[in-house]
Amino acid sequence: MERRMKNKLDLLQKIKIAAAYTDVNLNIIAKNQLFDEYFPGVDVLLPAPFFIGNIPDFRSVATGNGALEVHLSMMVNGRKQVFSLKFMHDSGDNYFFSAQNLTKEGRSQIDFYGSDQPFIPQYLSKSAPMMLIDAGKNGRILDANEAACAFYGYTKAEIESLTIDQINMLSPEAIKKEMAQAALYKRNYFNFKHRMKNGSIKDVEVYSSPIPAKNKTLLFSIIADASEKRMYELLLSDLNARINERVEAEKMACVVTTSKYQNLFEMSQDAVLIIEIGENGKMNFADVNKSACTLFGYSKEELVQKHSSDLIKDKDEYDTYIQRLRVALDSVGVYEGRLRIIRADGKVRTVETTVRQTYHTNRPIVIAVIRDITEKLKREKELMEKDMVVIQQKRMVEMGGLLSAAVHQMKQPLSTISLVAQVMKDEPHNLEENSEILKAQVQYLNETLTEFRNYFSLSAEKSSFSVLSVANDVVNIAKPLLTASGITVSVSGDDSVKSFGVPGDFRQITMNIIMNSMDVIRDRGIQKGRIDIDVHNGGSHVIAVFADNGGGIDESLLPEEIFKPFFSTKGDTGTGIGLSIVRGMAEKLGGYVKAENSPSGAIFTVAVNII
């Protein structure tokens, strides 16, 4: 049995037919050399990867359903080729398989040409377009499947009446040359332009293999529509060109940007250090600019080899700085601080640092900008020392002004005491009444001294107070002097409107304005002098309006000149600080003061904070 198999396989090998025997499970039990050449490494009858299209049903034959004989295309040795396959029961549990390559050697299957029998099997009618062409002089189309007819738009009879030069756009001479290439096995793949029946032109890919026949050579061609592929190739080519242009532009832009930032990096007047953070958290200098080298006194090569702690004067200061730096970078990504660094020459400098964390190629980096502020701090210290001298001088001036203000304030009650003493001498029967006035004036003097002592003191006790009540108190104290000068004072308003602060501050405001008005009225010889005080709620402030009939203020002194320190309209008799104190007290109470004229005199509007 084995010998008979071998003889049959050897015979088929000689006529160039691949053959093999299988068992009922389609496992190969014997095969000839040509089978191995066509189907290398096959142990089970023709696995699916070899076939183009449907896989023959060998299993039905092995289960007793007759024999199988088909013509189909298979991929053999990397090429698409047409085979005639046969599979049948041989004897016992053995089955016989043969594969004749019609693409090259299929003589027995093409001897029929000259007859009307079609070459392309019926089951391939609806697969890829296929044609059989006479490679002779006329290039006649001998056979075409349904797919070819549909592709070109012809009926089967119409297409088989054509020659290939009626479809191919090449010249007849060029067509003959290409067919010769295929007939001589020099080429089997071609790109052509084919004309359809409707006149349109399509790009096609043609796979052609020669088939020897009696007295002629035939070309079996499989056609694939390449128009869409060509369009996509053109689009892809254009897209690739555009992408390449864009890439080149981006590369150029990147070069320009990198160059620009490199120039900025090197030209910066501040020291800039780029620090890489390793996986272990260790920080290493990746790059430093020229200013950094100048600041630390090292060359770039020397500086990048240093550890950051080597450049800091005090280790404890450095540890505290790094601790705060890490917390800040983790939370907000930026940290500003100060350090004392030590240069290569041993000199110590104080620097301000701004440190930011960012990412480069998905790795964290730190950019530190460092500015030397040693000279700046030195200048600030010198200025501070000069300022202390100025501040001390200013305080002395203020103290002098305060003493002048105290004298100014005490003149009024002293004048009252002098006047009452004279009255007591002339009117002894009014002793008790005049004694009360004297006590009140002495008490006012005492309070005035206390208030001036606390003028610059932050410990002066603050409380809520009725602005109207304080104004009434001051008028009552000054009333004897005002009456002696022929001046009447009226106070009106809302007693419930309160302010918060040192009540004595508003008392000083009221006394200064009243005494200022009294002096003007008296100096100008105005009969029946009058001062009206009105207190009301101004919404955001308590408003106290002081109006007199003293003839008003010189317009050249409004609105600011009259409040300047040491400016006086009284000549040598005035200190020039009364209204300056009024402004300072009003601002201390969270308000302001302004001066203006009415038809009869001056109006001072004082605003203080409101509860």
Layout of SSEs?
Elements: H1 2-14, E1 17-22, E2 28-31, H2 33-38, H3 58-62, E3 68-76, E4 79-91, E5 94-101, H4 107-110, E6 130-134, E7 141-144, H5 146-152, H6 156-159, H7 172-183, E8 189-195, E9 201-213, E10 216-225, H8 227-267, E11 271-277, E12 283-288, H9 290-296, H10 300-303, H11 315-331, E13 334-342, E14 348-360, E15 363-372, H12 374-426, H13 431-453, E16 463-466, H14 467-484, E17 487-493, E18 498-501, H15 503-523, E19 529-537, E20 541-548, H16 578-588, E21 592-597, E22 602-609
Parallel strand pairs: 17-19
Antiparallel strand pairs: 1-2, 1-5, 3-4, 4-5, 6-7, 6-10, 8-9, 9-10, 11-12, 11-15, 13-14, 14-15, 16-18, 19-20, 20-22, 21-22
Helix pairs in contact: 12-13, 12-14, 14-15, 15-16
The dominant shape is rod-shaped
The biggest beta sheet is recorded as: 5 strands, antiparallel
Question: What is Rg?
Answer: 58 Å
Number of strands: 22
CATH superfamily of the largest domain: Histidine kinase-like ATPase, C-terminal domain
CATH architecture of the largest domain: 2-Layer Sandwich
CATH topology of the largest domain: Heat Shock Protein 90
The helix tally amounts to 16
How would you summarize this macromolecular structure in one to three sentences?
The protein is of the alpha+beta class and 611 residues long. It contains 16 helices and 22 strands. Strand 9 (201-213) and strand 10 (216-225) form a beta hairpin.
